[in-house]
Structure formats: C-alpha cells, structure tokens
Specification:
Elements (H helix, E strand, L loop, with lengths): L1 H15 L4 H27 L6 H29 L1
Helix pairs in contact: 1-2, 2-3
C-alpha cells in the first residue's frame, strides 16, 4: 500500500516534468493505475476487518476526479495544438 501511495505523486511529478503533453498523459495514466491499486487494497483491508478506511476511499475518489480533470485538460490542450 505504501508503494502504491508513493507512486501516485511521483508519477504526477515525473509527468509534469516531461517535454510533451503526450508523455505527461502517460505518467498520469500510471498514477491513475497506482491510485486504483491503492483503492482496491484499502477495500480488501476493510473487507478483512483490518481497517475502516471509508474516509480514505472517499479521498481516493476525490484524487481520482482531480487526475481525470488534469488528463482531460491536457488532452484538450493537445487537441488544440494538433489543429
């Protein structure tokens, strides 16, 4: 869980440092995958009775929405450049 959690901001940072929006989108996709991985690990932990992570799951969903918005913005920006 720690590895997945650290991977999210690390990939966002690496993507933002890339030269092109296409490369940035690739790293944002990887960050989204790590976010999904963390979410499922929290859900499994909850089902096994280890933790009550509903607040964490809510935060993960909020972060997922922000990532989706950033990806949507970069895609629109890339579309404008291609015309």
């Amino acid at each position: 869980m720690r590895r997945a959690a650290v991977s999210i901001p690390s990939n966002i940072a690496e993507g933002c440092a890339r030269a092109s929006d296409k490369e940035a989108l690739r790293f944002l996709d990887i960050a989204s995958g790590s976010l999904a991985e963390l979410e499922i690990q929290l859900i499994i932990s909850q089902q096994l009775g280890y933790i009550e992570p509903q607040k964490l799951i809510d935060q993960i969903q909020t972060i997922g929405q922000m990532l989706s918005g950033l990806k949507r913005h970069l895609k629109q920006k890339a579309d404008c450049i291609n015309y």
